[in-house]
Amino acid sequence: MSGVHLRLMAASDWDACKALTTMGDEAAQLDFASQDDLRRFLARNPFMNWVAYDDASRVIGCVLCSTDSLRGYIYDLVVEPTHRRQGIGEQLLNRALQGLQKFGIPRAVMTTARKNHKLGLMLVEHGWQISEELAFYTTDLSIGTHQV
Predict the structure, then answer these.
(1) Is the pTM of the predicted complex or chain greater than 0.90?
(2) What pLDDT, on a 0 to 100 scale, did the predictor assign at position 56?
(3) Does residue 112 or residue 59 have the better pLDDT?
(4) For 21-75, how does the pLDDT look when each residue is reduced to its tens digit (9 = 90+)?
(5) Distance CA 30, CA 19 (A)
(6) Confidence band, pLDDT 50/70/90 cuts, at residue 146
(7) What number does CATH give the domain 4-143?
(8) What are residue 67's phi and psi, to 5 degrees?
(9) Which of 16, 20, 33, 45 is the most buried (most CB within 10 A)?
(10) Percentage of the chain lying above the pLDDT 70 cut
(11) How many CB atoms lie within 10 A of CB 6?
């Protein structure tokens, strides 16, 4: 990993991370409308969100992670396509997991697009398991009044 460095993510990384999530076909997404949204997220989840950057200080990877105090959630793990298969994703993921461990979080969950086979393979190679018990449901709260 020569020439690659890791640091905690800052709100100023929003543009660079947003650009990374649009590269390739893995369907990662930085789901924040603004830099201020990311700033609030980072403040609530210290030590869990990281970027990888090269010697020119260009962001080439990022991981987004949070916790509800019971488990950790990895939302996005993305590495620029030209820098994949060099251990950068593993390093980012490990830093996020170490951040969760600082808060005593015993379990982490990661959601990814079903078509993201490369990430799924990396996770399984490192001992992660596909949950057969859980289903993932979403709703869009921005489309007006939402009640159950």
Answers:
(1) no
(2) 92
(3) 59
(4) 776 555 556 666 678 888 999 999 999 999 999 999 999 999 999 999 888 998 8
(5) 9
(6) low
(7) 3.40.630.30
(8) -145, 150
(9) 20
(10) 84
(11) 17
Q: Which residues contact 18 (CB under 8 A, 6 or more apart)?
A: 30
The pair of structure tokens assigned to 8 is: 């905690």
List the Cα angle 61/5/115 in 5-degree steps. 20
Q: Which tokens is 126 given?
A: 């490192």
At position 45, the amino acid (one-letter code) is N
Residues, the chain, total? 148
Task: State which amino acid sits at residue 120.
Answer: G
Closest CA to 25 of 136, 124, 113, 123: 113
Sign of torsion over alpha carbons 86, 124, 71, 40: positive
Q: How far apart are CA 58 and CA 16, in angstroms?
A: 8
CA nearest neighbour of 92 among 116, 115, 130, 123:
123
Residue 119: CB atoms within 10 A of its CB come to 22
Asked whether the beta carbons of 85 and 95 are under 8 A apart, the reply is: no
Say yes or no to pLDDT of 96 above 90. Answer: yes
Domain residue ranges in the chain: 4-143
